[in-house]
């Protein structure tokens, strides 16, 4: 009983903290800003938000379905409902501590499908590497198409593009040095570490060796297209954003994704990021903030609902185990 209470507290306490942060941010808004945001939310067409949520559910399904290819390659035949439930719970846990959902996802699969934690976690790390590569393609596409606009914005913020390039080159060089040391160095400490991480390495390597790698990659792109589609559909919910061009949508999507990736589910950072990037294209801060809250709130509610339902259903569907 105490263990179950502890699990629920581990979920709800961070969520309560998050609500407190949202409330604090709400109190920092000026009265006229709050009124403008309320007006935007009142005239929103929520049918587009519902469609956006439906697309998000398809993305959940695709992520759970993609996982089976890596697991099957290692000889583990898992049930799809367990894959889906653990993915849904991981999204919920990520709202508490960033990237902690990946750990809970591997732990839950170990509990209900008896897949070794290190191997399951390795497949998740491999997923994140593929996701990062695809997201990088979006970033390149967005920044190339909007280079002039971004460059002018950096200049207005006294940020030197040359310095950013130097930092980027330095990061790449350091990354290559670390990779070469990891692959070729035979230091005793590294040898022991590699041995301990052998299961993790096997999980990460599955993407390159699996029989259905092209199906895996298809779902990887499909997942990100679902992310972009649910963002794009939501644009039509507000009259002020319904007419923006697709390149602006991509930039909003990129900065919104960054906000989600570097915080606990984009808490507070998501509306700010959307308002900031939309302001570069003449969209008022009030409308950009309202749109950011609209998208973030709807997606967060979906994450919480699906996550909690999945958390409850996992032991129900596995009662015979």
SSE blueprint:
Blueprint: H1 2-28, H2 31-42, H3 46-73, H4 80-94, H5 100-113, H6 117-145, H7 147-156, H8 161-184, H9 188-196, H10 198-209, H11 213-235, H12 246-261, H13 269-279, H14 285-317
Helix pairs in contact: 2-14, 3-4, 3-11, 4-5, 4-14, 5-6, 6-10, 6-11, 6-12, 11-12, 12-13, 13-14
Could you explain the architecture of this structure?
There is one protein chain. The chain is mainly α and 321 residues long. The protein is built from 14 helices and no strands. α13 packs antiparallel against α14. The chain is globular, with a radius of gyration of 21 Å. The mean pLDDT is 81.
Brief overview, please?
With 321 residues, the chain is mostly helical. It has 14 helices and no strands.
């Amino acid at each position: 009983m105490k263990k179950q209470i502890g699990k629920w507290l581990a979920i709800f306490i961070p969520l309560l903290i998050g609500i407190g942060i949202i409330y604090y941010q709400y109190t920092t808004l000026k009265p006229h800003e709050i009124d403008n945001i309320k007006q935007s939310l009142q005239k929103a067409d929520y049918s587009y938000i519902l469609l956006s949520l439906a697309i998000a559910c398809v993305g959940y399904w695709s992520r759970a379905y993609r996982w089976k290819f890596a697991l099957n390659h290692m000889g583990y035949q898992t049930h799809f409902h367990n894959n889906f439930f653990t993915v849904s719970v991981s999204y919920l846990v990520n709202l508490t501590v960033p990237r902690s959902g990946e750990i809970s996802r591997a732990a839950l699969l170990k509990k209900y499908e008896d897949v070794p934690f290190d191997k399951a976690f390795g497949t998740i790390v491999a997923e994140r590497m593929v996701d990062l590569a695809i997201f990088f393609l979006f970033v390149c596409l967005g920044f190339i198409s909007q280079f002039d606009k971004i460059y002018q914005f950096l200049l207005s913020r006294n940020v030197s593009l040359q310095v950013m390039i130097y930092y980027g080159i330095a990061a790449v060089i350091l990354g290559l040095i670390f990779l070469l040391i990891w692959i070729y160095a035979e230091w005793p400490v590294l040898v022991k570490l590699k041995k301990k991480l052998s299961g993790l390495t096997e999980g990460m390597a599955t993407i390159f060796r699996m029989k259905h790698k092209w199906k895996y990659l298809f779902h990887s792109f499909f997942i990100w297209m679902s992310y972009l589609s649910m963002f794009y559909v939501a644009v039509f919910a507000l009259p002020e954003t319904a007419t923006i061009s697709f390149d602006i949508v991509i930039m909003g999507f990129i900065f919104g994704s960054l906000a989600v990736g570097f915080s606990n589910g984009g808490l507070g950072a998501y509306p700010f990021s959307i308002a900031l990037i939309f302001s570069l294209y003449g969209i008022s801060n009030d409308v950009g903030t309202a749109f950011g809250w609209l998208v973030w709130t709807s997606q967060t509610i979906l994450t919480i609902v699906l996550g909690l339902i999945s958390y409850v259903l996992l032991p129900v569907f596995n009662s015979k185990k």
